Every structure is written in C-alpha cells, then in structure tokens.
Amino acid sequence: MGRTLAEKIWDAHVVRRAENEPDLIYIDLHLVHEVTSPQAFDGLRAAGRPVRRPDLTLATEDHNTPTLDIDKPIADPVSRTQIEALRRNAAEFGVRIHSLGDIDQGIVHVVGPQLGITQPGMTIVCGDSHTSTHGAFGALAFGIGTSQVEHVLATQTLPLDPPKTMSVTVDGTLPPGVTAKDIILAVIAQIGTGGGQGYVIEYRGEAIRALSMEGRLTVCNMSIEAGARAGLVAPDDVTFDYVKGRPHAPAGAEWDAAVAAWRELYTDDDATFDKEVTLDASALTPFVTWGTNPGQGAPLGANVPDPATIADESERTAAERALEYMGLTAGQSLRDITVDTVFLGSCTNGRIEDLRAAAEVLRGHQVAEGVRMLVVPGSARVRLQAESEGLDTVFKEAGAEWRFAGCSMCLGMNPDTLAPGERSASTSNRNFEGRQGTGGRTHLVSPLVAAATAVTGHLSAPADLADVEQ
Amino acid sequence: MEAFITHTGRMVPLRRSNVDTDQIIPAVYLKRITRDGFEDGLFSAWRNDPEFVLNAPERAGATVLVAGPDFGTGSSREHAVWALQNYGFKAVISPRFADIFRGNSLKGGLLTVELSQDIVDKLWEATEKDPQIEVTVDLQTRTVSCADLVVPFDIDDYTRWRLLEGLDDIGLTLRHEGDIGTFESNRPLHLPKALPIAVGGTT
C-alpha cells in the first residue's frame, strides 16, 4: 500500500509510537516570534528547563514591529515590552534572533524560506497558524499554541495524532491575471472554512506544478483558512532551484544527498487520500471576499450574494451578519465597492514576486485620490531587493507609502490599522471582523487586484485599467 | 494543570458560527506577556453591544459556552483559551472546533465538547427558556447532561486520561528522553541548523 507525501514525512519523524497514545513527532525547525512565546519561556524558567535544541530554533520580530521610524525606540510601550521580552529570552536561552533593524528580520514565514532553512521533508512548527506556508517546500509545517511552543522548546518533539489527508488537485492552466491567491481563495470558497478541518492538504495538478515557489507559498499559507493545519506541495526542480545556494542550503556532497532524499518525497501512485477535491484552473478569474470569513468569497465579476438564497441556516445567518458588518447590500456589484485603503504585504503576499507584480500594474498610474496604499515588504531583504530593482520608486511615484518589513496591517498589532468603518482591499489572509482594526472592513485580494484597486478606488482587476488614463 | 473530572454550571448561548480567535480576543490584547488577566479582552468588540448575550445580567457567572459550528478558527493564539478561562468558562460546546483551538484548550484544561447541531440547538433552547438551567459536562462518563437530556461525546482515551489526572504534557514526554536522543543521533546530516548563523544571504 502506497503512502501519501504527508504520511511519508510523518513516518520519518516518529520518535516513539505506542498503542492508545499519540505519536511523539520530532521537530526539525522551531520558528519563534514575540507574541506567542513569552509565556512559553516563562514556563521553562519556572520548571528549570533549558531549550533542548537552540540550534534548531530561530526567532524573529514581526507582529509588533513598526513599519516607520524603525531606528527609534518602539513608541507603544506594551509592544516594546513584548519585543524586549523576546530579546531577553533569546539571549538567556541561547536562541538566534533577527531583531528589528537586522538584515534578516522580517515575517517569520518569509524569513525561513529566504534563508533556505525551510527545506523539503522537514517538520516545522511555529506559534503561528500561518506556519502552513512552509509546506510549499514539501515540509510538514503547522501552527501551534503557546503550550506546544513550550513543549517543543523543552523536548524538540510534540505528541500528535496522525492527520487525515486531503488532495486538492488544480488542473488546467491559469488564465492571464489570475494568480495563486485566486486559486486558494476559490478553494476556500468551495470547501468552506471548516472543510479542511483535521486534514493535511496536498495541492497537486498542472496548475500547482506551474506555480513559482512564491506562488506555492501563497497557496499553502492559506490552508489554515480552509481549516487545515498544513498544506503541502511535493518538491520538484522548482523547489530545489529555489533552495540551492541559500545561506542554510546544504552544499557539496550534502546537497547531492539532500536532493536524492527530496526526490523520494511524493505521494505514491497507489496511495489513497481520505478526501479529494478538484478545481479547474482555466475556469478561474480574480477572486475577492465580500464577507467576514475567508470562505465568503466570489469572482470579482460577480455580485454580493443574497443571503436568502443560501440553504444552510448557519451559513445564511453568517452571511446576513457579514453583509451588515461589511456595510454591503445583496446584489450590488463587487466592482462597485469603493475602498479607503489598499494593503500590499503579509506572509501571504509580501514576497518579491508579489511586489513586482503589483508594481507592474501601478507603473505609470496614480493611486486614486482619497485612497491610502501601504506597501509593506515581508522582510528586510525583500525590501532591499525591491529597492535594487527600483520598485520602491514605482510605488512612491504612484503615491503609495513604502514601509519597513513586518506583519503590519494584516492584523494591526503595530500602528498600521484601519479606523472604524474604513474599508480595505488587502493581500493578507483574514477578513475577520476587526482584524485590521476595530470596525475595519477587509476584502481579501491578490496583489494584482490590490494594485488595480488602488488606481481606480474600487475593487478592480488590472484589465479594468485599460480605460484609466495614464 | 488543574484536573478536569466533571463540571456543572449555567450556559451562555452564542448563536454564531465561525467564531474566530480574533473575535474571542483581538490582537491588540496579545501584547501582554502574562498568562492571566485576559478576561477584559474576551469578545471585546461584541461586548461593546449592550445586547450581546454575555452582557445579559442572567448570564453572569455562567461557565459553559455553547456556540455554533467552526468555533475557534483562525489564529493559533492560545490567548483565546486563556481569555475564556480567565473569564470563568470551564467548557465550550460546539458542533465543530478548529484544530489548533481545540488542541490549545485541551492542553490548558478548557474542555471542548463536540456535539451535533441538533443537540446544540436543544441546549440553546433550554438555556434561553430558563437561564438558570444547569448543564453537566462529565469527562469521567464522557456525557453531557441537561435536565432529561443525556448525550455522549467523543474524546480520545489519552487526552481524557491526561485531563482527569491533570498531568503536565512536557513531563510526560520527558519520560522518553532516551528515545528522543536516539532519534536525534540518526537524523540525516544534510538537515539545516540555525546555529551558528550562516553568512551571505540571497533574496
């Protein structure tokens, strides 16, 4: 009986298996940030326990960090205290940290791949649900809570029950202007926010194979929005080429050994998934959300749905509530929705290709009057790379704000927030009530739609800009 | 961790689906570095509405939250569990929980109980009719009972045992330190290390 990719990685990490107990799973890399770790380090201190493998642990500051004036002390004293706690803990327990101002600082899920420390076949955890991002490399990567953070710090393992497996096969070729973000938003709209609950999703099919590493990162990133803890793409030459030469990539004979091992990381032909979903890429168009959970999305060309037509009672009630919160009317065209703010960034879409794609749309255009566009690179190195390509100039000349790296307005823990009632088109991952600021309204979009929306002031695709004067 | 054996208390009916952890506790409250004092952040946006169920005087002191499906979706923040516990909740009942939230709850001794929508509807109706009515969540017998309603719920043996005994998860794992050491000595050499810091990055 063949095994799925997820099962192969799982089996290779079982430290101990006993009847009626969860498997004890070894963790190859533990990523740490300031928000979900202080209580875990306190727990270690209280129990007198060390960090078992500081050499497999890596910390970065991202959630609280400001994106302006990063050379000055952090203005919010509570944010500052939390970041200082991480710095103290890293020093005390011997954990490597990339602090604000460091060239390798950035969103934890952008930093790992960029350093080449995210590699195929690994188990990776972080006290952050978007750890699923790293699955793009064929690594089993998932978010954990603070109790588990402490557990991994102390033991480098986690007791876990094996997940069920689901395949999401995306066949066909994506039409121009349709991106990885549109794929994953369409998947979530199809299976729902609970559809992946209990599963690890493996993304397969021609359209997934054709994605760049960064596109695959976007898809895997939002697996959690479908309820799955992890998403995976089997590694291939695209993956190996991306990892090769990065600071932590194996070199010489170890590189050859690594690639030989990575080539075994695929789902066997005779393996079975517990659930299978298929999608036709060629039928996809730019996708946006209209509601307050990521499953409430529709093609940009559609209208705001009428809750009365939703059969399921709890979904209908949720839709009614969402329209009220979002200030939308059933039947109105999604393209007619005007925004105050456009946010380009986050662990979903804050990488260099995302910035390049948005800049290409913006080039020669102006951000619409009354619209604020924030461009927040996912890491300090993404920012530098963009600047070396002149993208910052494109953004600034169009009237967008060019910021320093971090999570920023994705969740508004730093000063970048929406005011009550403000509406954004955001390349981030969650449109929950108040996610980007109390009373804020969020539409999730791709970088291309974000850029086009910034120009027109209402939800738009790049194709809509043909009529806009340059 | 405090052991959980059985709990009897009054209910709060939360007639909403997809209650994400940003609603349970918004990000702005996550800057604290303690494990307690999060009760003020619990459902903070919704509590601004005087009509919100938690604000009803008859719900004061209730300890069992009964919510719609997909409770606890979104962020992995364990602060959501702490906020519920700090506020006084001992158990949450829902037709379906998000994975990470459920895991966090059961680590921390907040019992999550999955019951069908049908049963959740019955509990909502019962407590809306009589806010004083009590529900018992019994981990020993794996049942939820309310008046003449008695329904079983699923929980795996290992988690149940750990909760009944109030055992420290890390302590349990460290009993197998020898196995961990053996595993470590056999890991492939090409796997990356975070230390010492590699130099010269690319983007």
Mean pLDDT reading of chain A = 97
Strand order of the largest sheet of chain B: 4-3-2-1-5-6-7
> What is the helix tally of chain B?
8
Q: SSE order of chain B, as H and E?
A: EHHEHEHEHEEEHHH
- The rounded Rg of chain A comes to 21 Å
What proportion of the residues of chain B is helical, as a percent range?
25-40%
Which word captures the global form of chain A?
Answer: globular
Chain pair sharing the greatest interface: A-B, 100 and 67 residues
Low-confidence stretches of chain B: none
| Largest β sheet strand count, sense and barrel closure of chain B | 7 strands, mixed
Assess the beta-strand content of chain B as a share of residues. 15-25%
Largest sheet of chain A: 5 strands, parallel
Which structural class should the secondary elements of chain B be placed in?
Answer: alpha/beta
Strand-pairing-aware structural class of chain A: alpha/beta
What does this structure look like?
The complex is a heterodimer of chains A (470) and B (203). Chain A has helices spanning 5-11, 38-47, 77-93, 108-115, 146-155, 180-191, 206-209, 213-221, 237-243, 253-262, 313-326, 346-349, 352-362, 380-388, 391-398, 447-456; strands at residues 14-16, 23-26, 29-32, 57-60, 96-98, 123-126, 140-143, 157-160, 164-171, 199-204, 230-232, 275-280, 287-289, 297-299, 341-344, 372-375, 401-402, 423-426, 441-444. Chain A has 470 residues and is of the alpha/beta class. The longest helix of chain A is centred in the first third of the chain and has 17 residues, at 77-93. In chain A, the strands form five sheets. A five-stranded parallel sheet of chain A has the order 5-4-3-6-7, with helices on both faces. In chain A, strands 17-16-15-18-19 form a five-stranded parallel sheet, covered by helices on one side. In chain A, strands 11-10-9-12 form a four-stranded parallel sheet. In chain A, strand 3, helix 2 and strand 4 form a beta-alpha-beta unit. In chain A, helix 2 packs across helix 5 (146-155), helix 6 runs parallel beside helix 8 (213-221) and helix 13 (352-362) packs parallel to helix 16 (447-456). In chain B, helix 4 (99-108) links the parallel strand 3 (91-94) and strand 4. The model of chain B has no long low-confidence stretch (mean pLDDT 95). The longest helix of chain B has 13 residues, at 117-129. Chain B has a seven-stranded mixed sheet. Chain B has helices at 21-24, 44-47, 79-87, 99-108, 117-129, 157-165, 169-174, 177-185, and strands at 6-14, 64-67, 91-94, 111-114, 134-138, 143-146, 149-152. Chain B is 32% helix and 17% strand. Chains A and B meet through helix 2, helix 3, helix 5, helix 10 and helix 11 of A and helix 4, helix 7 and helix 8 of B.
